[in-house]
Each structure stands twice: as structure tokens, then as C-alpha cells.
Amino acid sequence: MAGGVLHLVTDRKAAPDLVAVVQAAVAGGVQWVQLRDKTAAALDLFHLAQRLAPVCRAAGAGLLINDRMDVAVAAGCDGVHLARKSLPVAAARRILPVPMLLGASVHSLAEAQEAVQQGADYVTFGSVYPTRSHPGQQPAGLDELARVVDAVPVPVLAIGGITPDNVEAVLATGVAGIAVISAIQGDPDPAAAAARLRERMEASAHRPRHPFPRPRCIAISDQETPLRLREGGRG
Questions:
Q1: Which Pfam families match (predicted)?
Q2: Reported pTM
């Protein structure tokens, strides 16, 4: 895929009407949405995921849930993204239905290698640049990002302070794509913001070292269980 994939990581505080923001973002070119809400109850997150899933699928986009594997499985999402204080990757890998993607946030080469060794399908590395979401965090920079991309055999997403003005330099490292929060949600026109990023990415001559998988669009009925998904094997 030219220029890699564009991920949106949600922030409920920045977007009270998250469904409308996601609908605009996927219309503008976002290919993956990661639903992240650290304070929501499981039931509320489940209902929100159920509302977002058809929006994403109508646009051909994938839906991941941050941290909450139970919600991801119950809502029929494409996968789970683990944060620093989530379950270890190896533990999550043992219990996650096998068709689902498993990603992890990492902040160093050692963390990236450990996550891959434990079974992560992809890693998100950052922060690459200074970012409002982590104001006190020292950015890792492009050189460290390139080291991670070169060292691990799975797709690497870059996150942190990425804008249309610097996305070309990020793509030059061979990343599978970028993940953004405020670059889209902080814009009064999320569709236009996504389109600007997508346009720059599509125009890039750089290609991912390891391309990001396409959405599997797993559909889980009320009768289907994680065990039955396991028995079906990987798609």
C-alpha cells in the first residue's frame, strides 16, 4: 500500500461526538481506528464499539480496541492494541482468538523486540516528535524509529507529533504507517485533516518494509465463542 496506512487513535475528551468524528475521519482516508478510552466502563465501551464497527466497515476501515480484549471479542472487532500497563503480550496472545490482530505500544528497540518475541502482530513506536498527548516525554526521534523498523520482522507504526509537514520524513524510515490523535481529532474538519495526511502519504515514494495487514472484519454473533474462533484457525 502506497505510503502505508493511516490510523486514528481516539480521544473521547477531544471529541464528545466520537462517532461523528470517526465517520468523518474514515471518509477522509483513515484506514484503521483504535478505540481508546481508559475510563469507560466495559458496557459503555462495548456499546460504543458496536456503533463504530459499522461506520468503519462501511468505509473498509478496521477497528481495534485499546487494552480491553473482552470488549474487542464481544463487539466483533478486528483486534486489540496493548498499552504499557495492559496484559503482557504473551498472556494476551494465549487468550485472544487467533484471527484477531494483536498490537503493542513500545518506546524502545528492546521493548519492540520483546513484544514481537511474545507474539505481537505489529508494534506502534513513539513518540517520534514532541506531542501534546505526552507533553513531558522526550521524543525518540527518526533515527531510533528507523532502528526499530530495521530490527523487527513485523509492521511498525509511528506515533507522536506527526503532521502533513513531517510525514514524509517518517515514511522514509520504512514504517508501515502512522498513528495520530490530535492531527485529526484536534482539527475542526476531521475529514479534511485525514485527507491532507492521506494525500501526502499516497504521494510518497517510500514503501513499508513490512506492510500492515488489511482489516479482517471479524463478525461475531451472539452464539459464536472465542473457542470456536480458535478452532477455525487463522484466516
A1: TMP-TENI (PF02581)
A2: 0.91
